[in-house]
Amino acid sequence: MRSRNYEADYAEEPSPWTRPGFVLAAALLLVIVALGVVVAVRSGDDDEPGPATPPVAAVSETPAAQPQTTGELPTAVPTTAPAGVTWQVVRGTALPFSDRAGPRDHSDTQAKGFAHAPEGALIAAAQLTSRVGAAAGRASWEPTLTRQFLPSADRDRLQRALEAEPEQPAQPGDLAPLAGYLYQSYSPDTAVIGLAYRAVNGATARWFIVTTTLRWSDGDWKMVAPPGGAWTSLSRTVTDLSGVVEWGAR
């Protein structure tokens, strides 16, 4: 028989795994693990493709570019003859053409598409004034007058005057050549430009200046008909070109 002392010495200490504190901690750990598994499962479900969500556009602190206003358009009038201008004879008159200032569309009877700038207004004035003359013929003055002159009673009077003129095409040397220009005022909406022409008759050198008015309308320069439909109301004779920028075919 074993002695009591041997039994006492041999008896094992209570197992730490069965102690109440450890059991409580283990139970708590199992709960935490279980919660982790649930979270992981739900997280895995979230990774699956779902309905497409449109991306949220980044908000920029820089304001969007605003459309160009008339105040930003060029307004500096040319004080020397515009560069890049070529001259072509159209119905007996040398007219200016520019790749930059226009006209973009032109034919023997009509010219349109002028730049919204001082040079565009200048070339439009020279083109339209010549093309609406009686010497240009009805095939030229009629579409020019009805499409590129602003409607008014003066335009109607000018049309009646042109209709009364006999059809007589100009011959070389019959028409006064363009000699220069003078800006009287300019804004992106309205241009008032004097066109100087050299008189072709008389021994004494003289010029006459015709004041033209153009307005920006429907994306192009349109001309205002002269008062009463008569260009003579806007014409004055001068004996020199003081204040005029010389400009014309050479």
Automatic annotation (TrEMBL):
<feature type="compositionally biased region" description="Polar residues">
    <location>
        <begin position="63"/>
        <end position="72"/>
    </location>
</feature>
<keyword id="KW-0472">Membrane</keyword>
<dbReference type="Pfam" id="PF26526">
    <property type="entry name" value="DUF8175"/>
</dbReference>
<feature type="transmembrane region" description="Helical">
    <location>
        <begin position="21"/>
        <end position="41"/>
    </location>
</feature>
<feature type="region of interest" description="Disordered">
    <location>
        <begin position="44"/>
        <end position="80"/>
    </location>
</feature>
<feature type="domain" description="DUF8175">
    <location>
        <begin position="51"/>
        <end position="245"/>
    </location>
</feature>
<dbReference type="InterPro" id="IPR058488">
    <property type="entry name" value="DUF8175"/>
</dbReference>
<keyword id="KW-1133">Transmembrane helix</keyword>
<keyword id="KW-0812">Transmembrane</keyword>
<protein>
    <recommendedName>
        <fullName>DUF8175 domain-containing protein</fullName>
    </recommendedName>
</protein>
